[in-house]
Specification:
- This protein is mainly alpha-helical and 108 residues long.
- Helix content is 80%, strand content 0%.
- It has helices spanning 3-24, 39-68, 74-107.
- Helix 2 (39-68) packs antiparallel against helix 3.
- The longest helix has 34 residues, at 74-107.
- It is rod-shaped.
Length: 108
Amino acid sequence: MHEDDLLLERWWSRAAWRRRRLTRNMSPDSLRLPNEASKLHTLGLCAVCAVLLTVLWVFFPLLLIAVIVPLGIWYPVVLAVAPIVITIVLFVFSTRETRRLRELAGDL
């Protein structure tokens, strides 16, 4: 064998040995999920994401539509309501997903 092949083979066997050694020493504590953020913190993050998503998904499409069709009062109303609705949707999905992950972690 070539010298590089021998070095690569030795490196792979060392990496495999290290992986086996690490997986044997796993404990239930290493499978624990990190502490989750508070509900208020999650709500704040969802609100920030909702504002940014409103700019991408609502503002620009409405701006393009407003060039062709006059929207009148609907333009500011939709821009005011969209972040609130998106915040609620993101918060509900986030809390449900966190609850589901906690239940799955309890089964381990």
